[in-house]
């Protein structure tokens, strides 16, 4: 699996902030301990079609992307919270409020560095786009 998140930042999660993530061309979402969206970069805004103002402070699994409230996605988030760390890559198809889009998700959490769970998203292919 292609690793699109800068390796140099893996041990600097506490330094990731709103300004920093605007330079990255892939989607970045950070969730707090209640799964509220704390960070949402402009690349994710463009790729998802969701305005940042509508997602910041909202429950990611209930109000932003209910299609992710599954064991496959939310289960990993809960695992990260329970264990205090997680570094996993997986593919997921987002289907809520937008056309189905397959994404490579890199979920990264290390409570020793930051209280946030980071989601780094790289769109793989918009499904059904070739059928239009």
From TrEMBL:
The keyword rRNA-binding does not apply. SUPFAM superfamilies: PYP-like sensor domain (PAS domain) (SSF55785). Residues 28-64 form the PAS domain. InterPro entries: PAS, PAS-like_dom_sf, PAS_fold, PYP. The modification S-(4-hydroxycinnamyl)cysteine is found at residue 67. Keywords: Chromophore, Photoreceptor protein, Receptor, Sensory transduction. CDD domains: PAS. GO terms for molecular function: photoreceptor activity. It holds the Pfam family PAS. The 4-hydroxycinnamic acid (p-coumaric acid) chromophore is covalently bound via a thioester linkage. One of its GO terms (biological process) is phototransduction. NCBIfam families: sensory_box (TIGR00229). Belongs to the photoactive yellow protein family. This is Photoactive yellow protein.
